[in-house]
Amino acid sequence: LETMIRKIFPEAEKINGLLFNNVKVRQYANTSDIASLADHVSGTHMDDSIIVVVSESTSSIRNSARNEVLVQLGSVGLLGILTTLTVNVVLLRIVRRPLKKLLEFVEEISAGELGTQAPVFHTHEMQELASSINSMSQKLAENDKERRLQMHKARQIQQHLLPNGVRLPHLQTAHIFEPADDVAGDYYDFLPLSHGLWLICLADVTGHGVPAAMGAAMLKALLLTEVTADLFDLSTTMENINRRFAEAILPGNFASMFLGCWDPKKMELIYASAGHEPAVVLRASGKIDELDSTGTLLGIDPDAEWENQTVQLSHADRVLLFSDGVTESRNEDGELFGRIRLTRSLTAHSASGASLVLTNLCRDIAKHRGDSRLHDDLTIVLLQCDDSSNEHCTQ
Question: What's this model's pTM, rounded to 2 decimal places?
Answer without folding.
Answer: 0.69
